[in-house]
Design goal:
The complex is a heterodimer of chains A (310) and B (301).
Chain A: H1 10-37, H2 42-46, H3 60-68, E1 70-72, E2 75-77, E3 92-95, E4 98-100, H4 101-133, H5 139-151, H6 158-167, H7 175-183, H8 186-195, H9 200-208, H10 213-241, H11 244-250, H12 259-269, H13 274-294, H14 296-307
Antiparallel strand pairs in A: 1-4, 2-3
Chain B: H1 11-46, H2 64-71, H3 73-104, H4 109-125, H5 127-137, H6 144-151, H7 168-178, H8 182-193, H9 197-205, H10 210-221, H11 223-238, H12 242-247, H13 259-268, H14 273-300
The chains are: A mainly alpha (310), B mainly alpha (301).
């Protein structure tokens, strides 16, 4: 307890213990169960008496996961080639060696999350700065539109989006997941919140010194909103990684699946092999948890700033 | 603010501001209009047609989809389930996160961060991984829950948690709960940390008890946070989908169908495209009304 508190009452002690128990049993245990389960033998997994700590650590589940399906490690295609071929297929000019599909899924997920993160950070910080600091005609209307869109359920637009993607020749590509995430206006809103704190005098001074718009942004604005960009980056990364519904609707072929989606599909096929599923769940969640723990400070900041309504 | 004191901008300057403003907005606006606004408009538009996945536009059929919707028993069942989920989970999530937030915000930094991280973990882990492990925990034969429950004598025989209409929805609400409280707790911890300490000290000097300080001083000040949490939790609960799709597929006997799952089912299994969009519009309207009501209620207090 903090220095201000002189003594602990019985009530406080009981609450502390209760919270600790809930945290461990409902929140930590499932994660523990995924990680230990992924190394257990099938006998241990299917036993009605659970093994609280694996009696024997085996790689069987991961081997099984890697042997089920395979995919090329990468496929590079001519950009926009699907617009010009007869059957809308892409012209592939480089195909990687065949590897277990789970590895490809992991690469897809990382590529998807990193790309969405970069594009979102760039577009949102530019737009957020303009909304906060530029006085232009139509600004108020644009801002209300952005706030209104944020309050609507994102998943409802997925069905029309799917058709739009096929019209744009983007269906069944990673881009069909990336673009809507970039378009989602939360990032602009968050960056507007951060940009509000830039003092107008500094911008004025830069203008008087003859700095152009671009230079003002890169040398003055961007360094000042850096913590916000960090928060938005980690936020977008995690949301993109875990946006299961969007991935489910948009992605079909084995080569474009993401890790969460791959596990979900495997669950459909090998539903009773919990060892295999735990191995998949571990692969899908452990990397993102590590990223989260590393950038946890930024993340907390992003959540709080996004909530402070203007 | 300072804006009132600024001299009015010259016309040339105003034009420059507008042009540069839109240029800065442009990359973001392209994505926003093409991939968010346009599909939203299309969603409303398609809901008035009998479009299917295969054909392009479908025929204009007016409000027929909406009329059919409210005569559709499965939809009504799904709506009821969704409302149950919202009514149970929103207050629970808010109360629990307020309780935890109030208990941990005065702790030492590391302890407070540790708790925030733990309660946020299920969100980061992702709905697929979380759902898969809970499915195993709930399993009839080799699930931990039945082992512990029968071992402690809480219930006599193994229970088929997800296959029983009595329990399935409750099981889903529990998982939804674990994936929903992370963000509210972070918000409450920071809101409580920002409460004006002079007010609290003044109240304590005047002999207020801890409970009085909390409800009379802190609670009004964290009201905006509570409102925000109510709105986001409502939206999230309405959109409950992944858990349903991966755990029960709406079964047994539609006991766990939700509107979001039924939208997905209608669009991608029944290929009723216009119909699914009509449901989406209804869902969006429900959420908009509820958010507006919550705002009104919180404002009037």
């Amino acid at each position: 307890m903090n220095t201000g508190v002189k003594h602990r009452s019985v009530y406080q002690t009981v609450t502390m213990i209760l919270i600790a128990i809930i945290a461990v049993v409902i929140f930590l245990f499932p994660l523990y169960w995924i990680v230990t389960g992924s190394f257990k033998t099938p006998t241990a997994i299917n036993n009605s008496v659970p093994e609280w700590w694996p009696s024997e650590w085996v790689m069987r589940n991961f081997n099984e996961l890697f042997s089920k399906r395979s995919a090329p490690l990468w496929e590079l295609h001519v950009p926009l080639s699907e617009w010009f071929t007869q059957d809308n297929s892409q012209i592939v000019f480089s195909t990687g060696p065949t590897v277990p599909a789970a590895i490809r899924w992991l690469i897809n997920t990382v590529f998807m999350s990193v790309t969405a993160m970069i594009i979102t950070c760039v577009t949102a910080s530019l737009a957020g700065y303009a909304l906060a600091k530029k006085r232009f005609a139509g600004r108020a209307i644009l801002f209300s539109l952005i706030v209104a869109a944020m309050a609507l359920p994102k998943q409802v637009i997925l069905i029309p989006l799917l058709r739009e993607m096929s019209n744009l020749h983007l269906s069944d590509t990673i881009w069909s997941v990336i673009f809507p995430i970039v378009g989602w206006p939360f990032g602009v809103f968050l960056m507007k919140q951060f940009s509000e704190s830039i003092p107008g005098e500094i911008l004025e001074a830069a203008r008087i010194d003859g700095a152009g718009e671009v230079k003002t942004f890169t040398t003055i604005v961007f360094p000042m909103i850096k913590p916000g960009v960090g928060a938005l980056a980690i936020f977008t990364f995690i949301n993109c990684w875990n946006d299961y519904f969007m991935q489910l609707v948009m992605l079909r072929g084995t080569n474009v699946l993401t890790m969460p989606l791959g596990i979900a599909k495997m669950q459909g096929e090998f539903g009773q092999d919990y060892g295999l599923l735990m191995a998949g769940a571990a692969l899908a969640s452990v990397p993102i948890i590590i990223v989260f723990l590393a950038f946890q400070k930024y993340f907390t900041q992003g959540i709080t700033m996004g909530a402070v309504k203007g | 603010m300072a804006k009132a004191n600024q001299p009015p901008m010259s016309r040339a300057l105003a034009r420059r501001e507008t042009i540069s403003g839109y240029l800065f907005m442009l990359p973001s606006l392209i994505f926003f209009f093409v991939f968010v606004v346009y599909p939203m408009v299309m969603c409303v538009f398609t809901s008035l047609t009998d479009a299917t996945m295969a054909d392009g536009g479908g025929n204009f059929i007016g409000m027929t989809n909406y009329v059919n919707l409210f005569q559709d028993e499965i939809f009504r069942k799904a709506l009821v389930n969704t409302v149950i989920i919202v009514v149970v989970s929103v207050p629970t999530v808010c109360a629990f996160s307020l309780w935890v937030g109030a208990c941990i915000y005065k702790m030492r930094d590391w302890a407070c961060s540790a708790y925030r991280v733990i309660f946020y973990l299920p969100v980061v882990t992702g709905s697929v991984a979380v759902t898969v492990v809970w499915k195993w925990i709930y399993h009839y034969y080799n699930g931990v829950l039945n082992y512990v429950g029968t071992g402690l004598g809480l219930w006599e025989k193994n229970i088929n948690w997800l296959g029983d209409t009595k329990f399935a929805l409750g099981c889903i609400i529990l998982i939804l709960f674990t994936t929903s409280v992370g963000q509210p707790i972070v918000l409450y911890v920071s809101a409580l940390g920002n409460v004006d300490t002079t007010l609290i000290e003044a109240a304590e000097v005047d002999g207020a008890t801890d409970m009085q300080v909390f409800w009379k001083v802190k609670w009004p000040q964290i009201m905006p946070t509570t409102l925000y949490i109510l709105v986001i939790t409502t939206i999230n609960s309405f959109q409950c989908f992944a858990l349903i799709q991966l755990l029960t597929s709406g079964g047994p006997k539609h006991a766990t169908d939700t509107v979001m799952y039924y939208i997905y089912y209608s669009a991608f299994t029944l290929y009723k495209y216009g119909y699914a969009n009509a449901m989406g519009v209804v869902l969006a309207i429900c959420i908009a009304i509820l958010s507006a009501v919550q705002f009104k209620l919180a404002k009037s207090e």
